[in-house]
Amino acid sequence: MPAVDEIQESEKLFVPRGRHKIEIVKSTTDVSLAPNYTLPEVAFIGTSNVGKSSLIKALFNKVPNIERSRLVRVSSTPGHTKTMNFFQVGQAFSLVDMPGYGINQPQSFVEMVEGYLKNRKK
């Protein structure tokens, strides 16, 4: 279990400041058009309406005007996310909000996610 000081230090990753910006970089259904990072990347993949976008929004809750900026879109409608949404968290890492599978999954879901999993740099 992480110590309190480790948790506080990790929370700083999700607070924009100076050159440490948190921003959406690209939304796409084609992995070949995804940003070319050298940063570690974390992808959130799961069933529709499980809370992937809500989790990312919670992580980014210190971003000013997150509600108005629509940096992360959430909906109570299953299958709202239709694209891979790439976010850059400063120079630390990137996050990918993937569409869910199951209810209202996009037609291109299999090609999109398999393409990501097979072709994205490790």
Summary, kept brief:
The protein has 122 residues and is of the alpha+beta class. The chain is 25% helix and 18% strand.
Q: Can you tell me about this structure?
A:
The mean pLDDT is 87. The protein is α+β, with helices and mostly antiparallel strands. The protein contains 4 helices and 4 strands, in the order αββααββα. The protein has helices at 4-11, 52-59, 66-69, 109-119, and strands at residues 22-28, 41-44, 84-89, 93-97. The two termini are 27 Å apart. The protein is globular. It has a 4-stranded mixed beta sheet, covered by helices on one side.
Which helices and strands appear, and what pairs or packs with what?
Blueprint: H1 4-11, E1 22-28, E2 41-44, H2 52-59, H3 66-69, E3 84-89, E4 93-97, H4 109-119
Parallel strand pairs: 2-4
Antiparallel strand pairs: 1-3, 3-4
